[in-house]
Specification:
This protein has a domain at about 1-70. By secondary structure, it is of the alpha+beta class. The radius of gyration is 32 Å and the shape is extended. It contains 2 helices and 2 strands; from the N terminus they run ααββ. About 15% of the residues lie in helices and about 25% in strands. It has a two-stranded antiparallel sheet with strand order 1-2. The protein has helices at about 1-5, 15-25; strands at about 40-55, 55-70.
Length: about 110
């Protein structure tokens, strides 16, 4: 068993390990990868309003920040419709509340 585990694989090896290495090396574009128009939200400090010497270094305590909101293009914006699996099986009308019976009953038979 030790000889088998330490043996190198041939270039045309079709085992699951070699196949996985080949498949993982292939570039596969993910459909959820943002395009060049989409951008994440971005925050950066514009200027320091209040600073203090902390452990020998000047550290901003209060800053003014600039916020760039996120943008998602129309292609990557999720639809307003629910997913396909979300459907009404049977629409039987208005829901009826459950009213428990507190009356005693007799078994027949």
């Amino acid at each position: 068993m030790d000889n088998y585990l330490r043996r190198p694989h041939t270039p045309d090896c079709g085992c699951s390990v070699c196949w996985s290495k080949v498949e993982m090396a292939k570039p596969d574009p993910c459909p959820s990868t943002p395009c060049d128009q989409c951008r994440p939200a971005f925050v950066q400090p514009v200027r320091a309003l209040k600073m203090r010497l902390v452990a020998g270094a000047w550290t901003p305590l209060l800053s003014q920040w600039e916020i760039t909101p996120a943008f998602t293009c129309a292609k990557h914006t999720p639809s307003d419709r629910p997913p396909k699996y979300w459907s009404v099986v049977v629409n039987i009308g208005k829901p009826v509340p459950f009213v428990p019976l507190h009356e005693p009953f007799e078994l027949t038979g």
